[in-house]
Amino acid sequence: MEKNVQKEIIKQTEQFVFQLLEKDASGHDWWHIHRVRNLALQMAVEEPGEVNAFICEMAALLHDVPDEKLNKTAEAGEKKVKAWLNQLFLPEEEKEAILFIVLNLSYKGGTNKVELTSIEGKLVQDADRLDAIGAIGIARTMAFSGSRGRLIHDPSKKPRENLSYDEYRSGEDTAIMHFYEKLLKLKNTMNTQTGKSFAEKRHQYMEQFLEEFYLEWDGLK
Ligand code: ADP
Ligand code: NI
User: Fold this and answer.
1) What is the pTM assigned to this prediction?
2) What is the distance in A from the centroid of ligand 2 to the CA of 196?
């Protein structure tokens, strides 16, 4: 595939995704896609071995298009990505590689057991999870909690263990609880060497944030 053909396809896909997500406020806004794409491309450079940057970039751009929160049904979301890929001038195997990543990236609360096999899939999944931790992850968590009318913190509420999907989505949590119920666990779910190394730094940053937070909460600093 010629480089400038790929460039044109990326540009068109970017516009397609932008107009779909422009108005989203569920945490899947365009800037999340922008960050995941840049992160996946950076990781593709740093990861040892051969990585197809074009597949990474396309999958990162399209990764939230079939998301359940943005579609009436899972089938409707799947149809949307397939229709987009089908009209592109791309080799069949590249379309399939991108589609497989996009349809199997999200864990859907742990119910999705399909593992991503390609290095491109593993990198994009890591990039998506990295965007939920570190400084960006803290900001997204606070914004999400606020948008649902929840508290930043309530010392009488303790993080819950072994949550079912419904409990996780029940809204019984504070922003600080979400750190323990999700964010601090993400480091151990990284697939790639580069993902692990990026996650380590972002994780440490969150630990520091929490330490500072509790000191300030108690008026000790
Ligand atoms: P994804 O499953 O793609 O990570 P979510 O919709 O679960 O997307 O989350 C979008 C963003 O909102 C993430 O940064 C996530 O950590 C945050 N978030 C999700 N659930 C909560 C919650 N209960 N409290 C605070 N932040 C949340
Ligand atoms: Ni995402």
Assistant:
1) 0.92
2) 18
